[in-house]
Amino acid sequence: MRSSLVVVGAGPRGTGLLERIAANAPEPYTGAGLDIHLVDPHPPGAGRIWRAAQSPLLWMNSHAEDVTMFTDDTVDMAGPVREGPTLHEWAALPGRTFADRRTQGSYLRWVHDEAVAALPADITVHHHRRRALRVSGPREGRQRVWLEGRDHPLLADLVVLALGHLDAEPDDEQARLAAYARAHGLVHLPPDFTADSDLSALPPGEPVLVRGFGLAFVDLMVLLTEGRGGRYEQGAYVPSGREPVLYAGSRRGVPYHSKIGYDLTGARPPLPRFLGPAQTDALLALPEEDGTRRAAVGALIEKELGFAHYHRLFAAHPERTALAWADFETAYAAAGPDERRDLVAAAVPDPADRLDLAALDHPLHGVRHAGAEDFQEALRGHIEADLRRRHDPAHSADLGLFLGLLSVYGQLARLGDTGPWWHGFFSFLASGPPGPRLRQMLALSRAGVLRFVGANMTVTAEDGVFRAASETVPGVVTEARALVEARLPEPTVRCTRDPLLRELHAEGAGETPDGLLRVDRADGRILDRAGRPYPRRFALGPFTDGRTPGAFTRPRTGGPAFRQNDATARAVLAFLRAPAPHAVG
Q1: Most CB within 10 Å of its CB: which of 37, 130, 367, 552?
Q2: How many domains does the chain have?
Q3: Domain that includes residue 282, residue range
Q4: Which residues are within 8 A (CB) of 562 and not within 5 positions of it... i.e. 6 or more apart?
Q5: pLDDT tens digit string along 408-429?
Q6: What is the pLDDT of residues 430-482, one digit of tens each?
Q7: Is residue 224 in a domain?
Q8: Residue 584 has what pLDDT?
Q9: Does residue 412 form part of some domain?
Q10: Where is the segment annotated Disordered (predicted)?
Q11: Do 518 and 421 share a structural domain?
Q12: Residue 356, pLDDT above cutoff 70
């Protein structure tokens, strides 16, 4: 009897798993044939986020040369390396291009098709353009995957959830705001994927409060300006008259840092150094419940990022240091936090060359402005300074820090959930918008289409309107009849709208304190609340505590998602190779 594998989610993560199955199948799979069922209402490869049916104005936030779906010898995995083209090589784009998302979707569809073609002849792929509603079946027996609009389930020896980003039910605050909007004829758009939001309810010329300053905001900005007929001429924005006026703020009060606009030259920081596999193994032995592990992880993150930053500073800009690198490295390795601060103060004369993670994370902490116009000018200066720095190799210690962030994320994927701070901090520093988007932000600000609110933005609903305020500009309150929450929904299994995950949670699947699905970091098997793995159920993606920076990655950076895909693919094939895996149930 042929074996059956059901993969729920045929986007980049499901495609990456398929590629690893194809790469590993000749070695561990010797069964009597395998049917792989890909379940996804969206196109295979591209999935929901990268589908063709979206605005061509929406870009990727990575250079085309920094996007690959293929492994290389930097990936720590047991399976074979199968190299392939980056996006820029495949699409014949200049390497520094920020491709639109539809082009990336075409690349992902090609990778999907190549992976299918590379499978052994006895493995067949079937695509079901439907939603998966639930999974049932005994722990040790065959699983049943129920699909929307279909009376009979798919029978599966194994199930892999590769769902990608998920919609969520509103939390208490969002529910209150939505109810207030309905009662008073206001517009409230909750956290969502901006390309899927109905923005037609935001009227031209009217103020709109926007909470969130990351990539979801950038998409919103584009669709409400160029998407409504505005254009840029010689660095200035020419409105169409159909734009609303966006009042944007967030917890930090500033947009994400620009993508770095130059290449690495010279020595690469030798990473990992203080947070590598050995340290990760030791951290896994620490208790989670009392915060001991999280505190230890935080200390090692700080030390690792500092090492990456200062290695680059000493290697590329030795004239701005006052100590030999060998002496600094030895002292840095032995020093605790207080001694490291003293060491850096002595070895790095200019404070602007020193790494201050707290200042990076909270750039407006303690900053106050007398009025709104003063703050507009100041934040434009902040963005201009960020653009200059991020495109100037004289500040290439920033690139060292970026590489340190990638290295750390590779280890944290093994540790699992480390709290919400890390993911947000990583995104703020390493996953920001292309430089041209920030230049557009400046032009929109000067044109009066975009107004900055400040840090720790608060929103209240009273007197029939929404009101926004910030500690950055005390006493200034903005009123509007529309509020947009420009951020992705939180990927919690308790609040997700995905019926399959909700039922798994109700049946006893484990979750972290922050609501992520618990998985075995060795192979991706789903864990129950007692920590026991389900033998026949796996999960990969941002809704799990093994989440990574993304389903694809920058070449030659270790690709933690690739490592996870490979481990899961090998576990799947090994299970199916065992005698009669489908005999029970």
Answers
A1: 552
A2: 2
A3: 277-430
A4: 16, 20, 71, 75, 77, 553
A5: 988 888 887 666 788 899 999 9
A6: 999 999 999 999 999 999 999 999 999 999 999 999 999 999 999 999 999 99
A7: no
A8: 47
A9: yes
A10: 541-562
A11: no
A12: yes
426 and 537 assigned to the same domain: no
- 567 in any annotated domain: yes
Token digits for 527?
Answer: 């864990």
| Domain match, 302 and 417 both | yes
Token couple for 71: 């492994």
Tokens of 95: 């390497």
Q: Give 241: exposed, middle or buried? Use CB within 10 Å, 0-12, 13-18, 19+.
A: exposed
Residue 45 lies in a domain: yes
What DSSP letter does each residue of 524-536 carry, written as one string? Answer: -EEEBTTSPEEEE
Element (H, E) at 387: helix 372-390
Beta-strand pair 465-469/458-462: antiparallel
Give the other-Cβ count within 10 Å of 173's Cβ.
11
Q: Are residues 396 and 534 in the same domain?
A: no
Across the chain, mean pLDDT equals: 94
Which of 7, 168, 106, 162 is closest to 499 using CA atoms? Answer: 168
Rounded distance between C-alpha atoms, residue 549 and residue 542, angstroms: 8
- CATH assignment at residue 506: 3.50.50.60
115, containing H or E segment: helix 101-118
Q: Structure pTM?
A: 0.94
**pLDDT tops 90 at residue 352:** yes
Contact partners, residue 36, CB within 8 Å, separation at least 6:
5, 6, 7, 18, 21, 119, 123, 124, 125, 126
- Cis amide leading into 272 (omega within 30): yes
